[in-house]
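Section handout 9: paired folding examples.
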Amino acid sequence: MAGNRSQYRRYTRSTAGNIFYFTVLILAGIFMVFPLFYCIITSLKPLDELLIFPPSFFVRRPTLSNYRVLPALLSNLQIPISRYLFNSIFIAVVTTAVGIIASSLAAFTFSKSRIRGRKLMFTIVQLMLLYNAYTLGVPQYLIFCKLHMIDTYWVYILPAIPSSVGCFLMKQFMDVSIPDSLLEAARIDGAGVMRIYWQIAMPIMKPAWMTVLLFSFQGMWSVVPSGTIFSEQLKTLPYVMSSVSAGGIARSGSSMAITVLLMIPPIIVFLFTQSNVMETMSNSGIKE
């Protein structure tokens, strides 16, 4: 008993250790939300407080004038602001929904099927995690030109559907959370592959695809066309909002107001998916 007690004391943190860890976590949390607070505070500053030197972090006379002037700044656009808003919502929702289905189908195949070469194909998916959008920019543009996709919605949607991150997260989560015996019992009962995928695998994989939903929506909501969209009818809300930010320091308050408004949809999505994100990260081997 004495040996067990000494071993228990050895692996238990002291009160000072707990205080230290919580202090570090609180400071890290403050550091992460600092940009959000800075945007909100700056969007409430009047012009004279934006121009003072040295600049101050806190606002002395908060005002909503930076939000009130946005309709006037956007009223001279050739295309109604509602069109840009529709483009952003349409692209984010469609790409997220189709991307989740594509990633889950691929993960289901890699994790639970018996096709030949699936390990090699999954290795290729893992290698795709090493490449970013800038590396693939030139070959993607050449492919878009050959397929006549320039100046269409497909330029936004198609490249984002085959998500290596989404496939990896779902596959790792499925390996841990869905036992093969459960799927084998469903096959014995006469369930087909698509029924097993849709009625058994997808409900269990809810934390994983909710995590992918968060990442995909956040990325597509802030997407800006770069050399592939020239028609104003197809441009997104962040693109037209960036034109307001080009007015110099006099519009820095309005720019921050726009940033705050553009952050609202991703924050709402995060609030609905945060618990699922934590569960996915703990079950996907990422914490290792």
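Moving on to protein 2 of 2.
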Amino acid sequence: LSSVIASAQPAQIVILGEVHDNPHHHLTQAALLKALRPKAVVWEMLTEAQSARLTSDTLATPQDLAAILDWDTSGWPEFSLYQPIFEAIPQAQHYGAAVPREVARAAMEAGIGAGFSDDAARFGLDQPLPPQEQAAREAAQLSAHCDALPGEILPAMVDIQRLRDATLARVALAALEGTGGPVAVITGNGHARRDWGVPTYLQVAAPQVRVFSLGQMEAGHI
């Protein structure tokens, strides 16, 4: 991991991708967090309300965090996979960046900008994707859902993915402003993509911010 740590250290925002149910990925994330010591961690898996429960007192008892966060009803893989990450960084502030279901539903019905308040233009959500990228992203959504989605729903699925990427970027920038950084982002590999994931939204909204993004292969390799 030494080369990854060296590459990530100058960054203000470090995006650590994962395959959600791969335990090796979470151990790698925990090791990197111990080395990088971010002041804030942004979670794809937590809502803002959940992250507000992560105080110095609750973080002191990581064995109780699953119950405190009501993790078992969240739909994410078992909490034991993520516990090493919380244990690695008890001093950090935690920020939830999950998009609530009602916001995602509004984006599907009324367009992506409806789910992003006044920041849509800042993150480029007021502009359509280039046709080639739109087609590639729709194909990726179809493949990710085992080719079981009707074609007419694919544009909305891409919009929701864009909304989630932009939300992670917006919360990461808020965490950077609030703590001074560095900031780590715990998220899936798809959001960590440099070509159309969170890094692209950070580049649009805050090109001066130094960003490092890491993806992990299924076998556990970086």
